[in-house]
């Protein structure tokens, strides 16, 4: 609206400003209507983003592998066992669902090691990682030839390189399969395979300047040798493994040191389903909260008599009255929304579609939908049944929830288009897929992100301003600008018309005054 200073109504005595304001009211109503439409779109976007935020929090809480306490997709996190072991013990153990409860004893006589070639003592002044190879007797360039685990690799080194450069180059060119270590204490260099066990092998030639004579035969690694006494056995059973981390009878062992048979490491596997039940309950409760919130938005009636307030209406209301009015005006804006309805339907399907080859159903582990139809698919937990299932059929329960598939998640397919993958993966894996479909920040082959992000966007992402609702808002802004421009032109026209009337009236007044003056002169 123009801010021109006008002095009106001097000749006509009319309240021009008020008359123009009344004439403009009908025109202004058009602008207010578009502003109200824009506000409704903005509120819808805010509601979508609130749901997106809830889904993102849910995802980061239970599906982020770095959140170890809450991560729900790990089989170990759902194993109904706890371990009692000395924190200073030279081994670490975890129990899977296949473990047997009871006391175990472990004696370790040998750790698994890679194949290692140790060089002789090097003679150089102030020997350290930055010592040049020229100081070790290398002149020009040469090739160090490595044969490891059936692979041959020739690595070129030069006298201008340092010991540090040598270490980095060997590690890089063998992709970490052969690692080089240097000790200032013993003043020697060691080549060793990352692979451990008797099947690891290493041969080094061309490294005489490092104190390593050319080898005829490769050296080999060594297996871990240990003994285990299980709850069912009164004597130790000797075992060998090529690595220091392995799983036997549902117990995963990590060997970090030795322990004699006379003083073995003792630990107890306890049946303890409570932490698992608590974790599943927390997951289901958060899931139910989100489902309940979305269902309320989908079924909420639209209060059509409560439209967004205009600026003039707000001037006549108190702040708390405006807040209450707007809360009412926001109701029902997502009623029957097809995107949210489809997501909720898929989430329900994820729970109640059977999982292939797990041998147990959701009802058998104590999970079902509420008999109260108003709760619309919320999950109810029978803790007693869940406890029994975990303690008697633990692995089946784990598979039901977190079983994986060789078929990878494909963002180019909808949930219904992934029948083979959905049939194979566990319930929690399916829910993760559905979250990816809707709030994924990566793009598919068509350049699209998650469905909800494409619709409403999310702050901090490219979609914040590049989404369908933001484009609708931009279109409304463009229309409002056009209408305001026309409004200003219309108002200016009305003022010009009244100005013409003022001018005509002033002319009439001038003529009348002249006439009155002439008549007055004649009567004298």
Automatic annotation (TrEMBL):
Residue span, Flagellar hook-associated protein 2 C-terminal domain: 221-509
Sections of the chain in a coiled coil: 466-493
Any one annotated GO CC term: bacterial-type flagellum filament cap
Main location per the UniProt record: secreted
Transmembrane segments: none
InterPro entries found in the cross-reference section: FliD (IPR040026), FliD_C (IPR010809), FliD_N (IPR003481)
Keywords in alphabetical order: Bacterial flagellum, Cell projection, Cilium, Coiled coil, Flagellum, Secreted
Cell compartments where the protein resides: Secreted; Bacterial flagellum
Keyword Repeat: no
Subunit structure: Homopentamer.
Functional description taken from the UniProt entry: Required for morphogenesis and for the elongation of the flagellar filament by facilitating polymerization of the flagellin monomers at the tip of growing filament. Forms a capping structure, which prevents flagellin subunits (transported through the central channel of the flagellum) from leaking out without polymerization at the distal end.
Family: Belongs to the FliD family.
Record-given protein name: Flagellar hook-associated protein 2
Organism from which the protein derives: Caloramator australicus RC3
């Amino acid at each position: 609206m123009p801010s021109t200073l006008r002095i009106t109504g001097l000749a006509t005595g009319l309240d021009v400003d008020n008359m123009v304001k009344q004439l403009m009211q009908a025109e202004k109503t058009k602008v207010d209507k578009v502003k109200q439409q824009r506000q409704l779109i903005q509120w819808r976007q805010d509601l979508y983003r609130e749901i997106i935020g809830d889904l993102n929090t849910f995802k980061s809480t239970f599906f982020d592998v770095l959140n170890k306490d809450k991560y729900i997709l790990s089989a170990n996190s759902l194993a109904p066992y706890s371990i009692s072991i000395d924190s200073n013990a030279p081994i670490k153990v975890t129990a899977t669902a296949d473990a047997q409860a009871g006391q175990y004893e472990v004696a370790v006589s040998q750790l698994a090691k890679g194949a290692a070639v140790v060089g002789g003592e090097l003679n150089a002044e102030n020997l350290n990682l930055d010592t040049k190879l020229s100081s070790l007797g290398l002149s020009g360039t040469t090739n160090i030839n490595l044969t490891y685990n059936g692979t041959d690799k020739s690595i070129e080194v030069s006298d201008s390189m340092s010991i540090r450069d040598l270490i980095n180059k060997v590690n890089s060119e063998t992709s970490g399969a052969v690692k080089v270590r240097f000790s200032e204490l013993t003043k020697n260099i060691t080549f060793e395979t990352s692979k451990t066990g008797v099947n690891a092998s290493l041969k080094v030639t061309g490294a005489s300047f490092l104190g390593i004579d050319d080898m005829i035969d490769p050296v080999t690694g060594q297996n871990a040798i240990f003994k285990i006494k299980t709850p069912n056995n009164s004597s130790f059973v000797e075992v060998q493994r090529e690595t220091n981390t392995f799983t036997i009878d549902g117990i995963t062992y990590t060997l970090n040191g030795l322990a004699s048979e006379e003083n073995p490491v003792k630990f107890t596997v306890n049946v303890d389903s409570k932490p698992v039940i608590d974790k599943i309950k927390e997951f289901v409760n958060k899931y139910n909260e989100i489902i309940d919130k979305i269902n309320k938005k989908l079924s909420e009636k639209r209060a059509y008599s409560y439209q967004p307030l205009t600026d003039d209406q707000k001037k006549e209301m108190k702040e708390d009255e405006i807040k209450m009015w707007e809360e009412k005006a926001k109701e029902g804006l997502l009623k029957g929304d097809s995107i949210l309805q489809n997501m909720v339907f898929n989430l329900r399907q994820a729970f109640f579609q059977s999982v292939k080859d797990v041998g147990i159903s959701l009802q058998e582990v104590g999970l079902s939908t509420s008999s109260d139809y108003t709760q619309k698919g919320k999950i109810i937990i029978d803790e007693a049944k869940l406890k029994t299932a975990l303690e008697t059929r633990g692995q089946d329960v784990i598979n039901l929830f977190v079983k994986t598939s060789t078929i990878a998640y494909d963002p180019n397919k909808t949930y219904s288009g992934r029948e083979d993958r959905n049939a194979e993966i566990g319930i929690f894996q399916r829910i993760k897929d559905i979250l990816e479909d809707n709030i994924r920040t990566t793009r598919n082959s068509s350049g699209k992100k998650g469905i909800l992000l494409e619709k409403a966007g999310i702050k901090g992402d490219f979609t914040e301003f590049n989404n369908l609702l933001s484009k609708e808002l931009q279109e409304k802004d463009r229309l409002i600008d056009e209408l305001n421009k026309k409004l200003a032109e219309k108002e200016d026209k009305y003022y010009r018309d009244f100005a013409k009337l003022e001018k005509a009236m002033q002319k009439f007044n001038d003529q009348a005054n002249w006439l009155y003056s002439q008549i007055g002169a004649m009567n004298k």
